Amino acid sequence: MKMLFVGGGNMAAALIGGLIARGTAAADILVVDPSEAQRDSLGARFGVTGLAAIDAEAVASAGLIVLAVKPQQMREAAAALAPAIGGQLVVSVAAGIRAADLSRWLGGHRRIVRAMPNTPALIGLGVTGLAAPSELASGDRSLAERVLGAVGTTVWVDDESKLDAVTAISGSGPAYVFLFIEALEAAAERLGLSPTQARALAQGTVSGAAQLAAQSTEPPATLRERVTSKGGTTAAALAELEAADLRGLIAHATQAAQRRSVELGDEFGRD
Asked: Is residue 51 within 8 Å of 29, Cβ to Cβ?
């Protein structure tokens, strides 16, 4: 089956690389991107064909269309697609663009899946939230899972509005982790370690703990308790974090991200 990617940025490149690594033929992938440099780069890396603009013949030949443009470019991209689109499955990875708005811009097209991937997809370790209209066929759901599953794991939500929560947790989540690593590195340097030592220790600790949690059948709370000896060093540190209401800060931060996701959906979908 031929696939048409509209937009050839980092997320499109990650998906294309993941699909090819899992057996999709490069000849079956077309990419539309106005940047000649970007088209050349994708062609050199993956052997895919690049187009400067949406072409009616390319649209008609594709069984799947992946919309990977920036949210503010989506209306224009949909307008270019609308005259040529048929019954293809459309997967949108643009944050904030609601399916109803995209459907309207595509002339009433309803075969749509919204996806909210995150940046670890760039190394094949992403997690993507997926949402679709209730009437979408199981085959289409499986196809969307295959495409996004090429760069990590997928999680379906039963209501599109929950993608705002997905955005707040996993979409924005890598930035929270990077901030924690930054803070841990800075703390290590204040304790007298060199920048090189601080970075190795902070990054290795976060990566190792995340992998341990992912591979364990026990909840994070149990893993935390096992590291925390009564009256020990970890207990002293955790007491400071609890006193600073770390849990409350995380809750407030994610609520702010969710609210902003809702606001962006309202802004982008406004006629």
From this structure: no
